[in-house]
């Protein structure tokens, strides 16, 4: 059918196509049906919303679609009902435990990127991967398909280094220190990050507190060729576009299927042209990888996948048994990271992990002798050279290079939990900490999160402060307090763990 475009001033997070109720009935179209809109060379697939917001003869489009094609008000287009894509059959094949062929994986990725698959089908695909997994052939095919359905960056400065954490551990602001340290040593490191998937703040969410993170590839090329580094959001780029779409489903389910995680990370590294990649696998109770044996197996997969993509990959298995540093949540983590860069000092877990990872990259990049990288990284951090490079990154990414940690706004609704007994901190529950910070509003509310005053092994007296919850609304604070009371994220024990008698 022919119709005139009506641009609706709204974003729906998907390609929504509004069709008048009478017209939908005539065309036998129902809510969430798939339709194709065509106008010359412009083609877009969208999900039907039946609504009298638009008149007969009009087709309403949400602003999300304008990101893909520049349709104009009143433009006449053709609207064609589109049946279920063939790729749904391949999703069901994986759902039933089948092995997907390369062409089937390519069809799924292309239909995700072309928005021919709706949220329900994408979530079914992600869930199928969580349950049935992918073998290395499937992972390699998925990685390349994800990268090749998007743009690729061509940076002249070589070698190109990269670092990426599989995430999962709260407070993991590490790479915000690693990137400027490595770039300050003269290496090129075009860092892309996702937003939070299972945590309360992804690196893109944290960096966005003090700089822009949404750039085009051309802008990134300019920034990286000028200062040797960037810290940007992969989802803003047409860089492995299927990645951010599947991440939305992962975030909703708070899962990160291993095969999809491998492809998600390495597709971005491949698209950025990264030649030397360091992968951080936080390992411990309550994170994505709980044992060193599992971490070593995943490390082998990353190294093999890198080999197939022509990238040199090394893996650092890192301690993930409790939060990194003392802060969880975008603004709180931004303050802590900025302070560490400015002073060269900060929480041991943050400084040790950042200089350790940066040291490996300095050795991989050939600017530090083997075994000397961490010492060199610490010198770069303590000398202030890393902070100077961070100022360059912030300025080139549209932020205020003079920003001070205390100037970063944080939630003003607070509640502090104190120690109910004296004893030793014997555990901090990562999942509970993340859940409380997300209940408080992170990462959407930048100022929400948790300030931790204790770490495992420390001694506390009854009444000592353990952690403060910060939120931007009383309602969110109340939700977080209820969850904290129920989950008790910090375990305190005396040396007498149990008294047993009369058994
Ligand atoms: O912890 P969750 O949210 O599951 O994983 C997502 C986080 O892990 C990676 O960290 P980095 O960008 O390498 O620092 C992603 O980019 C993102 O920040
Ligand atoms: N699944 C993912 C985990 C961490 N980082 C990513 O970019 N993707």
TrEMBL record:
Catalyzed reaction equations: AMP + phosphate = alpha-D-ribose 1,5-bisphosphate + adenine; UMP + phosphate = alpha-D-ribose 1,5-bisphosphate + uracil; CMP + phosphate = cytosine + alpha-D-ribose 1,5-bisphosphate
Superkingdom per UniProt: Archaea
Keyword Glycosyltransferase included in the entry's annotation: yes
Matching InterPro entries: AMP_phosphorylase, Glycosyl_Trfase_fam3, Glycosyl_Trfase_fam3_N_dom, Glycosyl_Trfase_fam3_N_dom_sf, Nuc_phospho_transferase, PYNP-like_C_sf, PYNP_C, Pyrmidine_PPase_CS
Annotated catalytic residues: 256 (proton donor)
GO BP, sorted A to Z: AMP catabolic process; pyrimidine deoxyribonucleoside metabolic process; pyrimidine nucleobase metabolic process
EC number annotated for this UniProt entry: 2.4.2.57
KW Transmembrane (keyword) present: no
GO molecular function, one term: AMP binding
GO CC, any one term: cytosol
UniProt: AMP binding residues: 168, 194-199, 203, 264, 288
Record-annotated membrane-spanning stretches: none
Family: Belongs to the thymidine/pyrimidine-nucleoside phosphorylase family. Type 2 subfamily.
Protein name, UniProt field: AMP phosphorylase
Organism for this UniProt entry: Thermococcus barossii
Upper taxonomic lineage: Archaea, Methanobacteriati, Methanobacteriota, Thermococci, Thermococcales
